[in-house]
Amino acid sequence: MGQPTFFFIEFKNMAAIKEHINELARPVAGQLSVGIVDIELAGNARRTVVKIFIDKPGGVTLEDCTHFSRALSAVLDVEDPIRTRYVLEVSSPGLDRPLKTRKDFLWGVGKLARIVTREKIDGENVVVGRIQAVSEHTVVVSVEGSKEVSIPLGQISKARLEIEL
Question: Which residues of 81-112 are buried (b: 16+ CB within 10 A; e: fewer)?
Answer without folding.
Answer: bbeeebebebbbbeeebebeeeebbebbeeee
